[in-house]
Amino acid sequence: MDIIETIKSRYDGLTKKQKKIADYMINHIDKMSFITMKELSDATSVTEVTILNACAALGFPSFKEFKYEARKYLGLREKLFLHESGDLGVSTIPKYELDNKKELLKSIAEEENVQWENYYASLDYEALFRIAKEFVYRKQIVLCGRGVSKMLAEMISIRLAGCTIGSVVMDTELNDNIHMGLPLIQNQTLTVVISFPDYYFMTEKIAEYAKSKGSHVIAITDSKEAAITRFSDDVLTVPSHTRLFLNTLSIPMGLLNVLTSAIDIEKNFKGEGKEAIGSLGSYFQEKSWWKLGK
User: What average pLDDT does the segment 208-218 reach?
Assistant: First the structure.
């Protein structure tokens, strides 16, 4: 029985004020994952004690357990939607493309190489150093993502550790992970949200929550139109798809290499911005390791 069914099954036994809370919960289930008790109290014009009593009447030991079940429900709903819509990023190679497998693979490699070179040419080093300062001077860093995005978050965390900068990785698909990580997101926290198609909804919710807490939010995604950008102070976009895959790690990893290099330089140059920017550009001009097939 999911949270909506649970509320409806116990609805008749609630008091008038508890029913008012239950109605709000059902009608605004998308907000329930991260809503505070005070916010719910203000929205329903009831006391926080009444909310706690309503949670108990609905079978939840505490308000935290209620929010946990709300996140679990939203996660399952999203997975069902993707399954029913068939929007799972699965590609099928046309038969005519398989006539020459070697040429097909070579053309895919060349396409990805051109994509990276075009992206590299558009890099804004001033913006990269401005963002790098957030990593160096913020008291706390939380990196959020799911699936491929979580892999990128873990890579950033490893690189930050090499710069003696601590960070926490939050898997936005795991309720326990979210439950433990949310208290870390405060106004002095740098929250980095990473989201690529299929743009997992819970990562967007984390970005929204972080913004509401006054955290500085950096989004790493493939498009300025991605939902997480609405709640972000800084946005880094990078192409992530290839002919065969919805998401590839190669070009986003290239961005992370540049970004974490900027962070390391920023920490060592201590404010010598112009010299640092020149060094970063020169470093990546000299390197050719990103060029596939060369």
Answer: 95
Q: Which residues contact 259 (CB under 8 A, 6 or more apart)?
A: 128, 131, 132, 156, 236
192-215: burial string, b at 16+ Cβ within 10 Å, e else? bbbbbbbbbbbbbbbbbbbbebeb
Q: Are 173 and 144 in contact (CB under 8 A)?
A: no
How high is the mean pLDDT of the chain?
A: 83
Decide: helix, strand or coil at residue 173: coil
Fold designation for 95-286: Rossmann fold (3.40.50)
Give the pair of three-digit tokens for residue 219: 């989004």
**pLDDT above 90: residue 34:** no
Give the C-alpha distances (Å, rounded to integers) separating 100 from 62, 93, 97: 61, 12, 7
Please state, in angstroms and rounded to a whole number, the distance separating the CA atoms of residues 50 and 58.
12
Domain boundaries, the chain: 3-83, 95-286
